[in-house]
Structure formats: structure tokens, C-alpha cells
Amino acid sequence: MEVRAELLKSIWYAFTSLDTEDSGKVSKSQLKVLSHNLYSVLRIPHNQAALEQHFSDDDDGPVSSQGYMPYLNKFILDKVVEGTFEKEEVDALCWTLCSKKNYHPNTNGTAVLSNKDAEFLWCLFNFLTEDKYPLVLVPEEVEYLLKKICAVLNVELNSVDLEEFWTQECVREGMSVWSFLELVNSGVLGRGLDRERLSSAIEDVYREIVGNVLKEGYLWKKGHLRRNWTERWFCLKPSALCYYTSEDRKECKGSIELDNNCCVEVLPEREGKRCMFCVKTLNKTYEMSAPDSKQRQEWTAAIQQAIRLRSEGKSSLHKELKARRQEVREERERRRAMREQETQRLQDLQGEKEQKQAELEHLKEAQKQAQASLLQEEERRRKQHEELQRALEEQLREAEEARASMREEMALKELEAEHQRKRIRELEELQQRLEEALHQEIKARQDEENYRYTQARLLAEEEEKTKALLSLQEEQEELLEQMQKEKRELRRDMEEKANALEEAHKQLENIRASRHRVDQDIAAAQRKQRQASTSVKHWNVQMTRLMHPISPGGLLLTLLPLVFGRLSADTQRCEKVFAPFLVSYSFACLSHLNVSDHQTSKHKMQFINEGLYYSTEEKRKPSLQGPVWKRDFNS
């Protein structure tokens, strides 16, 4: 994409140079020749059919850049392969076409640039311009390029001439390449410079910026086979470090490919060589020696910079620097626009302030006019007042004269007035008494009206309360009737419940009596049951004794009750002591029984078990009658 943009810049100059009438259009025959030459320098196979087909219409008129761009993009630029052509040849072709029309150096020998130098500056100008047509270079980039050339020449840039040139209106927004060449030919880089020195400086800057050469110069290199030291001309680019036999770069002796795996190191002095350093790759280590330590530091820094550019995927250092400068300019433009907006806003605020000030002045003027009108009105009123006062004074004099004449008449009428005053006082007293009587009557009527109103209100309230009392009385009567009904029902229920409770008490007494009788019956039955059980056991023992002869153990069984009967003082102790012996002898007695007599054996075992059980029961429930054996023996 970058190669396409750079090619378009050069081709744009070639296209505009063919427009001899500056109409923006070029004849088809000239475009055919230009396309044919572009095919040749870009190493693209010629497509004569496509060329003839694109320009085969009947219209023989010229073609604009918009008409030529589709063909240029489709059949030329889309087929360009980077690395298959030399960009210098394309630039030389386009420079040859555009310089004939636009570049006219002074023919009197005052021009400081040769045609080759002008071509290099034209290429540098195209490299530094932005992709905006027509191509112009902003003043910052022009100054950067001139300072770059002056740094190589070791001269100071003529800032005075440059400032005068920047003041021109036509170069404030940007400078064309022809104006730039004219500026350089005018001696802005310094007058009296050697042309060869200037050409060498321009070529060095061209190779550094356009040729993408980071650094070049002589270094001593150690061989890999002979291991001897040879002086070579080294040329460093972001992709490789090439070395030649001489600085004309005609015979390349080798190249060191730079990538992420490469590094540069400083070496100590050895083999009589000073300022040594090496470049290490995956396969080899290249040892070199610089003329001095400063050159060694510059070379190591440049090689590290090339490795960094290669690792970051950037192909040119100056393209990166150009992008940074462009970002700085855009940021500056953005800040300038913001300052202009702020200035405009301040101007608007100032305008509003001035407008408000004018309105305030207008209001003050209006206030002054109003005050003047008020003063005039006050003066007019004062004059009217004075005239009125004079008229009143005149009337007062006339009144004094009339009063003097009337005093005489008043003296005459004073007597009549005295009589009249007496009559008037009598009438006033009568009137006062009448007024008092009238006030009393009015007050009495008002009190009567108030009493009537209060009486009507009280009657209305009494009527409302009477109605409310009647309604409450009716509700009370209804409630009383309802309460009486409920009271009768409750009385009936209470009587029923009292009867039921009395019957329940009677039934409970009957049940308690029945229970007592049943308990007595149960106690009697239990006594009878115990007695019957005792008798059954006794007779079982007797029957067993009578049905079989006495065995050797039988005598002990016969004597045991006698012994137990005699030891009645310590019955429980005897049972505890002899119970195990009784069981042992009982089993011994059973061993002498007839085994075939199953029924007799069963009775024998039942006897032993029952005897033991009741002896244990007697131990748990001591009786006043003594142990069972004692009772059996006594019986």
C-alpha cells in the first residue's frame, strides 16, 4: 500500500506534465505512451489489447485524471510486485516528463542545483508530502529538509531569507516542489557553496531518507576464512547491513541479514585493533572495527535501531519520523483550532458584553432624559403653583375686605344669633334626647331579633334532639325487647343446664358408688384368687408327694419347710441363702424321675418353677403370715 501511494505521487507529476494547456485533461495518445513506459519500468507484461480496448472509443478528445485512474489502478498498479522493479527508474521517468514543463533553472549560471540534484530534491519532496493532491509540502517539512541538508554541509541555515519567504501569501498553506527548487536555487542554504559539496550532501540526504540508509561509511571487517582484517564500505538499512569494496557500491562483498535474533556488542581491544564491536546472528558473528570510539557508538546505535525497526515490522525510519511529525502537526492544528474556538468564544462574550454595555448606556441615556423631563414637569408645576398662590392671595385680600364689611353686619346680627343659639341649644337637647330614645329602641329591636333568632335556633336544635331521642328510645326499646328475649332464652338454657348438671351429679355419684362396689368386688376376687392359687399350689405339692416315692433329695424337700418354718425370725435371709440349693436339689431330684413319664416331669418342673416364683414374689411382697413353705408345712 505504501509503494502504491509513492508510485501515484510520481505518476501524478507525469500526468500533469502532459497537460500542456492546464485544463486537467491529457490526450489519449500521450496516455498510451505514458502507460507503455510505465509497463517497462515497473517490469509488468505489456497488455496491448487492454490498452487499445480502454482507449478504443470514437471520442478522440483528452482524458481527465478521473478517466485515467481506473485503467491505471486495474492494469498497472494492481499488477505491481514490490521488489521486481527499481523505484529510482520510475522516479527518473516521471522527473524527465515533469521537469521539461515545470523546472526552469536560471540559464545565466546562478543556479546552484544540477539536474540530478533537482531530481533528488524532487524525490525527497515527494517522500515528505502527504497523500493529498495537489501535492504540497507544509513549511515545517520544508524547514526540516533544509536543516537536514545543512547539517550534512555543516552550515547554518539562512533564517532571514527563509522568514521572508514564509511571509509570502502563496506559501503559507503549503509549497509546491517547483517553488521549493526555486527557493534552493536562490541560495537559502548559503551562498558561495561548492556545487560538488552541495550535490554530495543532497545525495547523502536522498540516500538516507528515500534510499532508507541509516548509516554508511568505512569499517574494518575480520574475515571468516583467512581471519584477516579488510577495510570495507558498509551500508546499513533496516533489513540488512551490506558491505562493498569501495564507496561507489559497485561490488557487493556480502550482506548481514538483521532480524529479532541479531544483537550488537562492544568488544575489547585485541589483535592491534581498537574500537571493536561485533554483530551476532544465529549462524555467525561478524567482528568489525571503527576508526574511533564516536564512530563505534554511532554504528552500534544505528544497528540497534535497525534491529528495533525490523522487530516492530517497520520498513523505514523516516516514514516513522514523518508520521510522528504529522501527528505533532495535527495535534498543533487541533490545539490551534481549539484556541481559535476559545478566541471566538471570548470574542462572542466580548461582543455580548459590549452589547450589554451599549444597552446599559442606552438605559442611562433614557434615565437622563426621564430625569430632564421630570425636572421640566416639576418646573411647570412650580410655576402653576406660584400662579395659583398669587390668585389665592388676591382672593384672600378680597375675602379680607368682604370680612371687614361683614363684621359690621355680624355685630348687628349677633344679637339675633344669640337668640337663635338659645333656640338651637334647646333643639339640640331635644334632638339628643330623641336620638337616645331612638338608639334605645333600635337596640331593643336588635336584642329582640337576636332573642328570636336564638329561640328559633334552640327550637330547631330541640326538635332535632327530640327526633334523635325518639329514635334512640325506639332503638332502646328494640334492644330491651331483644335483651329480654335473650335473657329468657339464657334463663331457659341455664335451667336446662342446671337440670343436666344435677342429673350428671347423680350419675357421677351412682358411678362412684358402683366403682367402689366394683373395687371391693375386685379386692375380694383378688383375695379369693390368691387363696385359690395358694390352695392349688398346696394341693399340687401334696399330690406330687403322694404320687411318687420319696427320693434321696426328696427328704430335703420335705424337711425344708420345717426348717424354714423354724427360722421365721429371718425369712428373707433364708430365702436368699437356700434358693440356689433348692434349685440344685430340684434338678437332682428330676434326674431320678422317669423320663418317659412326660406328664409327671412336666408337673415336677412346674412345681419347681412355681415354688421359686412364689418364693421370689413373697420376697418382693412380704406377708405377715410368713413364707409359703411355712404355711405349707403347718397345713
Automatic annotation (TrEMBL):
<dbReference type="GO" id="GO:0005634">
    <property type="term" value="C:nucleus"/>
</dbReference>
<dbReference type="InterPro" id="IPR057836">
    <property type="entry name" value="EF-hand_SWAP70_N"/>
</dbReference>
<dbReference type="Pfam" id="PF25530">
    <property type="entry name" value="EF-hand_SWAP70_N"/>
</dbReference>
<protein>
    <recommendedName>
        <fullName>PH domain-containing protein</fullName>
    </recommendedName>
</protein>
<feature type="domain" description="PH">
    <location>
        <begin position="212"/>
        <end position="308"/>
    </location>
</feature>
<dbReference type="InterPro" id="IPR011992">
    <property type="entry name" value="EF-hand-dom_pair"/>
</dbReference>
<dbReference type="InterPro" id="IPR057837">
    <property type="entry name" value="PH_SWAP70"/>
</dbReference>
<feature type="region of interest" description="Disordered">
    <location>
        <begin position="314"/>
        <end position="389"/>
    </location>
</feature>
<dbReference type="InterPro" id="IPR011993">
    <property type="entry name" value="PH-like_dom_sf"/>
</dbReference>
<dbReference type="InterPro" id="IPR001849">
    <property type="entry name" value="PH_domain"/>
</dbReference>
<feature type="compositionally biased region" description="Basic and acidic residues">
    <location>
        <begin position="314"/>
        <end position="367"/>
    </location>
</feature>
<feature type="compositionally biased region" description="Basic and acidic residues">
    <location>
        <begin position="377"/>
        <end position="389"/>
    </location>
</feature>
<dbReference type="Pfam" id="PF00169">
    <property type="entry name" value="PH"/>
</dbReference>
<dbReference type="GO" id="GO:0005737">
    <property type="term" value="C:cytoplasm"/>
</dbReference>
